[in-house]
Amino acid sequence: MKVLVTSKSFGRVAPDALELLKENGIEIVRGSRPSMNAAEIATEIAGCDALVVGNDTVDAGVFAAADRLQVVHMHGTGLDAIDVAAATENGVLVANAPGANRNAVAELTVALMLVAARSIDKHIEILKAGRWERTAGHEVSGKTLGVIGLGNIGQRIVELLSGFNMGVIGFDVYPDREWAERAAVALAQSPDEVFAEADFVVLALSLNDKTRNFVDARRLGLMKPNAYLINTARGGLVDDEALCVALREKRLAGAAIDVFDPEPLSPDSPLRTSGATLTPHLAATSVESAGNVSRIVARNLIDVLLHGRSECAVNPGALARRIRKK
User: Fold this and answer.
1) Is residue 238 helix, strand or coil?
2) Are residues 244 and 185 in the same domain?
3) Cα gap 214→310, rounded to integer Å
4) Fewer CB atoms inside 10 A, N or C side of the chain?
5) pLDDT band at 321 (very low <50, low <70, confident <90, very high)
6) Distance between CA 305 and CA 287 in Å, rounded?
7) Does the pLDDT at position 307 exceed 80?
8) pLDDT on residue 34
9) What is the tally of structural domains in the chain?
């Protein structure tokens, strides 16, 4: 069995994950370079039974070029760069590692809230430039937190902020009402209600056709002028142009953005001069989360390749499709 790995972080801080694969007779083949595009992956996928990717694009061309591929495993959670429908059509499982990086993402979200609210990043630059200037920011305590998407990460964000004496309003298409009651989260009837009421709006959504440009000019217009938008989920969720206009016209107090579309962020992107707090997709990047993800991926690859099962597959029907094709 062979696994083509294009993810830069797979096994980097968890060599035990690599050893586990080797002990089970699974050979690791590193891609010719990290962060490959779909066409490059297609030229190297022949003869491989599995593919482990980071933010690489995996399209129908990859599946057409594969002759033994059984599973594509995301080294993380986001699947928007993988054509799941094409994978299913070709009998290839697609899997991720849900929950492995929930704490890392939630912690950075909280950090960005605090940085943006007190303009910490801007004051650091002012001080480094040799000036001694201070501007008053906003406290988080006593404000209303709005979380859109109350899955693993959204719930963890609420948990981490529970000591800040914040009111919490949240929205999820399929909310866990028992958890919301325990966590004292008021469930909104619509996302618009969250945008209108919250002082800090946090996005914890996946990106798909329904959520692309989820935060548009209309929804930004619903927010309070002293509110902040925090996005550590996916770049495509926010209309960047509309956000820049809102910030420039001071219809928002600020924004903190960790994710972009496309990535890396273009040098001439208007976001760079918008006044928003920006970080280079750091949310899931912690030593602990990278180790967690690598171990989950390794165990799941063994389950799929050696035992024909998977607890992490997002398209389990692909397995039955492959069996029928045989």
Assistant:
1) strand
2) yes
3) 32
4) C
5) low
6) 27
7) yes
8) 77
9) 2
Q: Is 75 a catalytic residue?
A: no
Q: Check pLDDT > 80 for residue 72.
A: yes
Distance of CA 206 to the CA centre of its chain: 7
Tokens of 315: 């398209």
Q: Where are the beta strands (DSSP E) in 149-233?
A: 167-171, 185-187, 200-203, 228-231
Active site (annotated) includes residue 281 = yes
The most distant pair of C-alpha atoms in the chain lies apart, rounded to whole Å, by 71
Rg, C-alpha atoms of the chain: 21
Q: Helix or strand or coil: residue 179? A: helix
Q: Domain check: are 252 and 191 in the same one?
A: yes
Q: How confident is the model at residue 35 (pLDDT cuts 50, 70, 90)?
A: confident
Distance separating alpha carbons of residues 199 and 229, to the nearest angstrom: 9
> Are residues 106 and 96 part of one domain?
no
Catalytic residue among 263, 272, 309, 311: 263
* Catalytic hit among 281, 295, 299, 321: 281
pLDDT band at 292 (very low <50, low <70, confident <90, very high): very high
Query: Which has the closest alpha carbon to 204: 229, 239, 240?
Result: 229
171 and 294 belong to one structural domain: no
Active site residue 134: no
Statement to judge: residues 86 and 111 lie in one domain:
no
**What pLDDT score was predicted for residue 70?**
96
Give me the pLDDT at residue 80, please: 85
Residues 238 and 167 in one domain: yes
Do 180 and 267 lie in a common domain?
A: yes
Domain range spanning residue 9? 2-100+286-325
Q: Do 147 and 83 lie in a common domain? A: no
Q: Which residues pair with 313 in a beta bridge?
A: 95
Alpha-carbon dihedral 124, 130, 132, 136, rounded to 10 degrees: -30
pLDDT in tens, 88-146: 999 999 999 988 999 999 999 999 999 999 999 999 999 999 999 999 999 999 999 99
**Cα–Cα distance for residue pair 157/162, rounded to 1 Å:** 9
**What is the arithmetic mean of pLDDT over 152-163?**
97
The CATH number linked to 260 is: 3.40.50.720
Average pLDDT of every residue of the chain: 95
